[in-house]
Design brief:
The protein is an alpha/beta fold and 516 residues long. It is built from 17 helices and 17 strands. Helix content is 36%, strand content 20%. The structure holds 6-O-phosphono-beta-D-glucopyranose.
């Protein structure tokens, strides 16, 4: 049971919303024996318990196809959670463990859901979970529709407008494979669920640095007046990863590719937050209304526009930090001759009053030399050059870089006079670092998002119209790539910054990718 006193003293609790407590509830994890539950979800719930942020009464119900007793289920998590330790681990665990309950079942068997219903009703009596339910579908997306339908048939989803007790369903990408399948899935689940009961997770929105984009833009006076086409020359959004197909992900990834895996969701969200207008307030719909307006002005391209504006790449064998690493084709689970892209670079413009004519360059890739996600706002140079041009100077082109991860923070590059008798300028950097400025630890994205589901706050979750607009943009690229004559993925050696074609793409605008 959580101790309200913990909230006062635990720094993590201070980092999470505290204006009101979440209602007591049961969190049912479908796929409780899987990777996401093990690596992210249960550890996040444990951290929330440690910080005193979980509701006063709660239960975590693992639903999977095993015949486990509660004790066996708990035993799965004890060593994994203990690894990250903390002096108070055993004490927190002793409060947390009795709240872990296992419910065996198969996803398409209605009887399993009837049994689950009885288990949940019993927990309402024994654990005080008050009839409130979160169903977290940490399963392969092909099961989403079936599970949601069975939840409905078993009476586990409450009527749409019922406020209390409540039932909420959480799903995670990939939500569809293209616009048509995403809309179809939506149609299916909307037979059972109202939009307000469905929480689509994009874990990037749970990152503090991503939430800080709005804080920086709209919580300060100096940025917004210059955040437009008059002052901004270009925007670069990068999500670079070192990882390849670790953890047996090859099978999934080969059917997805970088465009579906990273661009449709995380990068479109970053773009929307950078480019949106100020919302009227910070309510869920006000924020999402503005984000969707950005996604709606994404370009509508013919195939030849796609070939001109988008580069896809695939990594070949190479070396990363001095170690030889295999090429994509050698990875486990990847189909022979696969043309799945592991890298994408895109040049796009947003056709609205704020941004018309400003190029946005997006790039993401696996097996790049460095893990680094950032957004760079590049400003125009001053209209005249008073100072001598100098190596190491920007020519006055200031740059604001929001570092999403790692080394979370933001920096502004500007020119300063080199001390001495000459009028020489050199680029210098003003830097903000989370670690140095705030003494509280940053909560994991899943902690924030799970808590928001329990609080019923959908601000950081993707709404149907956002999802559809992002898919519309991505689907036109997927369709063009399937056409005869479409350029094949360009090869890049693992450990490099992507294919040369991506450099040519950006060079056409007389600029280059930022060095990470
Ligand atoms: C996931 C993708 O959504 O995000 C992965 O499926 C990717 O391929 C991951 O590695 C990146 O997340 P993060 O939080 O490590 O940037």
């Amino acid at each position: 049971m959580s101790n309200p006193d913990d909230v006062e003293t635990n720094p993590l609790a201070e980092a999470l919303p505290r204006t009101r407590a979440a209602d007591s509830c049961a969190v049912v994890l479908f796929g409780a024996t899987g990777d996401l539950a093990h690596r992210k979800l249960v550890p996040a719930l444990f951290q929330l318990a440690r910080g005193g942020s979980l509701p006063a009464e709660y239960a975590i119900v693992g639903f999977a196809r095993r015949e486990w007793a509660d004790q066996e289920f708990r035993a799965q998590y004890h060593p994994a959670l203990g690894k990250h330790g903390g002096a108070d681990f055993e004490e927190v665990w002793s409060r947390f463990a009795p709240r872990l309950v296992f419910a065996p079942g198969t996803f398409d068997d209605l009887a399993s859901y009837t049994a689950l219903k009885h288990t949940l009703e019993a927990l309402d009596r024994t654990h005080g979970t008050a009839g409130n339910r979160v169903f977290y579908l940490a399963v392969s997306p092909e099961y989403f529709a079936t599970i949601i339908a069975r939840l409905g048939e078993a009476g586990l989803i409450y009527p749409r407008q019922q406020e209390s007790p409540w039932s909420r369903v959480v799903i995670e990408k990939p939500i569809g494979r293209d616009l048509t399948s995403a809309l179809e899935l939506n149609r299916e689940v909307s037979r059972t669920l109202d939009e307000s009961q469905l929480y689509r997770i994009d874990h990037y929105l749970g990152k503090e640095t991503v939430q800080n984009i709005l804080a920086l833009r709209f919580g300060n006076g100096i940025f917004e007046p210059i955040w437009n086409r008059r002052h901004v020359k270009a925007v670069q959004i990068t999500v670079a990863e070192e990882v390849g197909m670790a953890g047996g992900r090859g099978g999934y990834y080969d059917t997805a590719g970088a465009l579906r895996d990273m661009v449709q969701n995380h990068m479109m969200q970053l773009l929307a937050l950078v480019a949106m207008e100020p919302p009227v307030d910070l309510s869920a719909d006000a924020v999402r209304n503005e984000k969707v307006k950005v996604l709606e002005v994404l370009p509508r391209w013919r195939p030849e526009d796609v070939f001109r504006s988008v580069v896809r790449g695939q990594y070949a064998a190479g070396s990363l930090h001095g170690h030889e690493v295999p090429g994509y084709h050698e990875e486990k689970g990847v189909a022979p001759g696969s043309t799945t892209e592991t890298y994408v670079a895109i040049r796009l413009e947003l056709n609205n009053w704020r941004w018309a004519g400003v190029p946005f360059f997006l790039r993401t890739g696996k097996r790049l030399p460095k893990r680094a996600s950032e957004i760079a706002i590049q400003f125009h140079k001053p209209p005249t050059a008073l100072f001598e041009p100098q190596e190491g100077s920007l020519g006055g082109a200031n740059e604001l870089v929001l570092r999403i991860q790692p080394d979370e923070g933001a920096s502004l590059r500007f020119e300063a006079k080199v001390p001495g008798s000459r009028r020489r300028l050199q680029a210098v950097r003003m830097d903000f670092r989370y670690g140095a400025s705030f003494a509280i630890p940053t909560p994991e994205a899943y902690e924030r998002l799970l808590l928001d589901v329990m609080l019923g706050d959908p601000t950081l979750f993707t709404r149907t119209d956002e999802l559809a607009s992002a898919w519309r943009f991505v689907t036109q690229i997927l369709d063009a790539w399937r056409m005869p004559g479409a350029p094949a993925p360009a090869s890049y050696p693992a450990g490099s910054f992507g294919p040369a074609a991506a450099d040519h793409l950006i060079a056409a605008d007389h600029t280059q990718w930022r060095r990470l």
